[in-house]
Automatic annotation (TrEMBL):
The keyword Hydrolase applies. The active site is at D14 (proton acceptor), E187 (proton donor). GO terms for molecular function: hydrolase activity, hydrolyzing O-glycosyl compounds. It comes from Bifidobacterium oedipodis. This is Beta-xylosidase. Belongs to the glycosyl hydrolase 43 family. Signal peptide: none annotated. It holds the Pfam family Glyco_hydro_43. CDD domains: GH43_SXA-like. GO terms for biological process: carbohydrate metabolic process. The record marks D127 as: Important for catalytic activity, responsible for pKa modulation of the active site Glu and correct orientation of both the proton donor and substrate. The keyword Nucleotide-binding does not apply.
Length: 538
């Protein structure tokens, strides 16, 4: 059996992997998307099934107003004392000297929940993980953020003892155990005790093409006691620019029942335009940062290394004791919205789907118009990850606006600064509904203007679609669901990539989504009814 990378496609960053008996679990970052933290399970490391999102109550996670790429950073999943432990950071500030990220802890007896109310830990840094030592003591391990002028923002890895009796950090126990290498930007720490050594795995170099994973170890948990691996970078694609996998680094280690070792990390799969060179541009990651798994071995001196070399491979041998897992081979869907709850791959931004946003069931999804797609507070949008480079998505919508402030339709969305959509609205000049399309490129807003397509008066249902073909995408419409016409314009998909958004802002941690949205800036909450959504890879 082979592991085909990435094992989790489309925006599944910062994997935290564990094994409980014969089952592996991976928890991934979700940033500003609701619900918080996605967990998948597998028995063979190759095929993965969705399990749950443990942060599904506002009492656990309140992200209203969070900036794009704020919210949940690098959750850490662990298992000890007969229960699951999940540490996560809610980041309220993305750019500038401060991050204002608070670390929380929730627990559960069963991975599927219910998960507890959160325990507030601290806010001195993000990417926190919980280490359970073999003597019963527990420690919070985290990146430390230094906001002071003249200081490097990444101030090493801090260890603080955690008191299980009080469920609080013990005062005056914090110390820096490792400052990182000269690569700098040390973050994403995970600590393990193996054969009497404490091994510290950390990400360095940032989360773009310079990204790497480093390893240090120590016989103790004393301050500044860790020494870096003499083997160099444990995992990186910095010097493998032609590899189809890029950006590998931030992740975690797991041991199989039979004593084999694997490492789950984030990765990117960039595509390139014909006139772009490897040296000038490694490409555009519209699917965001995904999850890959590489096989690990140990040398005679007890240092870990990636078996295939630090660049990793697209295909890796599964564990010899793997139990074959049945899981989806594609993510095609036809959703008629018959159920009273949204299917688990639908997400909302910052807040849960509820009566303020709309309702679902009985064959339709109704969204009440709220703010624009730039809004960080009141937004009626449900969306799902791009899981393929090439796909078609279509939906049927019924919407009756009476002014141009009211819009509803189908969107391709990265963040509040980078999105486009096809939508139904009202044209004052022609006194009729029209089908328009618009793009927001960080404040550079363009739409079809007079090229918007009039909707005949006798048409109630309108079909909208998008065709994504790696580097470009288009929108289309139909008045009967059978005969389709293209809307004017071909859109550059790279504008919905991590790499393009990085050139505009520091908030570039998610990936492209396709979704449904309703806007009513006039304040009447005009409803839009959607049904027959389909997503098909090509």
């Amino acid at each position: 059996m082979q592991i085909h990378n990435p094992v989790l496609t489309g925006f599944h960053a910062d994997p935290s992997i564990i094994r409980v008996n014969d089952t592996y679990y991976i928890a991934n970052s979700t940033f500003e998307w609701w619900p918080g933290v996605r967990i998948h399970e597998s028995k063979d490391l190759a095929h993965w099934n969705y399990v749950t999102c443990p942060l599904n109550r506002v009492s656990q996670l309140d992200m209203r107003g969070n900036p794009s790429s704020g919210g949940i950073w690098a959750p850490d999943l662990s298992y000890a004392d007969g229960k699951f432990w999940l540490v996560y950071t809610d980041v309220k500030v993305v750019g500038g000297a401060f991050k204002d990220g608070t670390n929380y802890l929730v627990t559960a007896d069963d991975i599927r929940g219910p998960w507890s109310e959160p325990v507030r830990l601290n806010g001195v840094g993000f990417d926190a993980s919980l280490f359970h030592d073999d003597d019963g003591r527990k420690y919070l391990v985290q990146q430390t953020w230094d906001f002071r002028a003249g200081h490097h923002r990444f101030d090493g890895i801090t260890l603080t003892e955690f008191d299980v009796e009080t469920m609080r950090l013990k005062p005056h126990t914090a110390r820096t155990i490792w400052a990182g290498t000269d690569v700098k930007v040390v973050e994403g720490p995970h600590l393990y005790k193996i054969n009497g050594w404490y091994y510290l795995f950390c990400a360095e170099g940032g989360t773009s093409y310079e990204h790497q994973e480093s390893v240090a170890r120590s016989r103790s948990l004393d301050a500044h006691s860790f020494e870096v691996s003499p083997l160099g970078a444990f995992l990186t694609n910095f010097d493998t620019p032609r590899s189809p996998l890029q950006k590998q680094g931030h992740g975690s280690l797991v041991e199989t029942p039979g004593g084999e070792w694997y490492y789950a990390s984030l990765c990117g799969r960039p595509w390139r335009e014909d006139n772009e060179s490897f040296n000038g541009c490694r490409g555009w990651c519209t699917l965001g940062r995904e999850t890959s798994i590489q096989q690990v071995a140990w040398n005679d001196e007890g240092w870990p290394f990636v078996v295939s070399g630090h660049g990793g491979l697209l295909e890796v041998s599964a564990p010899s004791d793997a139990v074959e897992t049945i899981a989806p081979t594609d993510y095609d869907i036809h959703d008629c919205f018959e159920a009273a709850e949204l299917e688990h791959d639908w997400n909302t931004l910052r807040v849960p789907f509820g009566p303020d946003m709309g309702h679902v069931g009985g064959g339709e999804l109704t969204l009440y118009g709220q703010g624009s797609l730039c809004n960080l507070f009141d937004l009626s949008l449900v969306a799902r990850r791009w899981r393929d480079f090439d796909f078609d998505a279509r939906v049927q919508v019924q919407f009756n606006p009476d002014n141009y402030m009211q819009m509803a339709g189908l969107t391709n969305y990265y963040c509040d600064g980078a999105w486009s959509w096809a939508y139904v609205t009202w044209d004052d000049a022609r006194a009729c509904r029209v089908i328009g399309a618009a793009q927001n490129d960080f404040g550079n807003y363009t739409d079809l203007g007079e090229s918007a397509v009039p909707v005949p008066d006798d048409v109630e249902q309108i079909w909208l679609g998008t065709r994504v073909r790696t580097g470009t995408y288009t929108y289309e419409y139909s008045f009967d669901g059978e005969h389709w016409q293209d809307l004017p314009g071909t859109y550059d998909a790279k504008l919905l990539s991590d790499d393009y958004v990085l050139t505009k802002t520091g908030a570039f941690f998610t990936g492209a989504f396709v979704g449904l949205a309703a806007v009513d800036l006039a304040g009447y909450r005009t409803p839009a009814s959607f049904t027959n959504f389909s997503y098909e890879h090509r």
